[in-house]
Amino acid sequence: MNPNYLHDPHQGEPTEHDQMLQQLEQDLSVFRQEGELSLPELPPRALRKERTIWRMFSLGLAGSLLVASLLFALSLLLDPPSSPYAVRSQSALMVNGAKWTEKQRLPFDSVLQTTADGSCVMTVGNVGAATLTGESRVQILSPLDAYGDGRYRLMLDYGNLEVYVNAPAQAFLIETPWFQVWDLGCHYELQLDAEGNGSLAVFSGAVRWQSQEQSVRLDAGESLTILAGQAQTN
Amino acid sequence: MQRHAATMRAYLHAFLPPHEIDDQLQETTLAIWRGLSILRTTNRPVPWMLGIARHRALRALRQRHKAPASLAEPEQLADRSSGGSGLTAEDLLRILQKLPEAYRVSLALRLIEQKGSEEIGKALGMTPGSVRVNLTRGMMQLRQQLLREGYP
């Protein structure tokens, strides 16, 4: 046994090797705490528990806000931007075969139809506006550069479409089964029936009419007659 | 708080002269109050409190070394001499404070408050076996120092 090992005061008497230890205990006992000190007591446990609950609630709230912020940021990253086509005013408008009564954005690939006395004015992002009048049908196509620089597209099957574009050239493209109409910064009107007969009139700016065989540029004040999808240039 | 005041008081004796103990104990208590939120979450409150006491004691020692020598100390020394050796209790404490910290804090709790190795271990966050080793080695060094001083 280690002769210097200390005895435990709660485990029996000290050995003969602990004489100095006993003397030290006696001499240093003057520093021992006698009676109670005037120290403040800790708050009651109930109060501490209440504070703990409040702290947990605060932490939970902060955590929830953090998670919600992360989810929102993630949804912005993952979700594509919504369609830029918004109906400003309309009458007798049918979208995908159902009557359209709300002023809200039109989803891509939706088909718009107006009757003979109907009309629809829609804004196209910050590019311009398109007005559909009379018995017409158009389909909203997704942009050429998906979510890119705003080359918006409409497919005109038949009817009257008036277009205002206040953006750089070639920002807005009208397609038909026979040809395309590119804006060059302009205001124009395109009329077309189901057989590909119609006209194109330019009121301001310029427009490029283009099919697989032909390409015609029209400036303000000029117009073009279209027969069976072919431009009549004479 | 009262429950642990004696332990903190004895612990501070391992660092400071007796006349500074009560002030630093109050300072320690105040610091514990300020850190109540930590005290609520720790599962070892006594070692945490003693950690604050140690921090306070070391800071007081640093400030004392910067300040001019104090004249307050000697008044209580006269009537505390131990039987025969001529060493006062304050002298014994000063010799104890020359030991390495691990030894002197265990010995202070043992000799002043007469705590067992289990209690010391809980207070210091150590196992009872480690405490016994520190007590044994500390006592060996203290014994040598005291014998040189003619104690007892």
**Which spans of chain B have pLDDT < 50 for at least 5 consecutive residues?**
69-79
Radius of gyration of chain B: 16 Å
Q: How far from one another are the termini of chain A?
A: 124 Å
Q: Biggest sheet of chain A, in brief?
A: 13 strands, mixed
Number of helices of chain A: 2
Count of distinct structural domains of chain B: 1
For this structure, what is the CATH class of the largest domain in chain A? Mainly Beta
CATH hierarchy: architecture of the largest domain in chain A: Sandwich
Tell me the Rg of chain A in angstroms. Answer: 42 Å
Question: What do you see in this structure?
Answer:
The complex is a heterodimer of chains A (234) and B (152). Chain A has 234 residues and is α+β, with helices and mostly antiparallel strands. Chain A has two domains: 36-79; 85-232, Sandwich (Jelly Rolls). Chain A has helices at 19-28, 45-78; strands at 85-95, 98-99, 111-124, 128-141, 152-165, 172-175, 180-183, 187-192, 198-204, 206-210, 215-219, 223-227, 230-232. Chain A starts with 18 loop residues before the first helix and ends with a strand. By secondary structure, chain B is mostly helical. Chain B has a single domain (2-148), classed as Up-down Bundle (Butyryl-CoA Dehydrogenase, subunit A, domain 3). Chain B is 68% helix and 0% strand. Chain B has helices at 2-12, 18-34, 36-41, 45-66, 89-96, 101-111, 117-124, 128-148. Chains A and B meet through α1 and α2 of A and α1, α2, α3, α5 and α8 of B.
Describe the protein's topology:
The complex is a heterodimer of chains A (234) and B (152).
Chain A: H1 19-28, H2 45-78, E1 85-95, E2 98-99, E3 111-124, E4 128-141, E5 152-165, E6 172-175, E7 180-183, E8 187-192, E9 198-204, E10 206-210, E11 215-219, E12 223-227, E13 230-232
Parallel strand pairs in A: 5-6
Antiparallel strand pairs in A: 1-2, 1-3, 3-4, 4-5, 5-8, 6-7, 7-10, 8-9, 9-12, 10-11, 12-13
Chain B: H1 2-12, H2 18-34, H3 36-41, H4 45-66, H5 89-96, H6 101-111, H7 117-124, H8 128-148
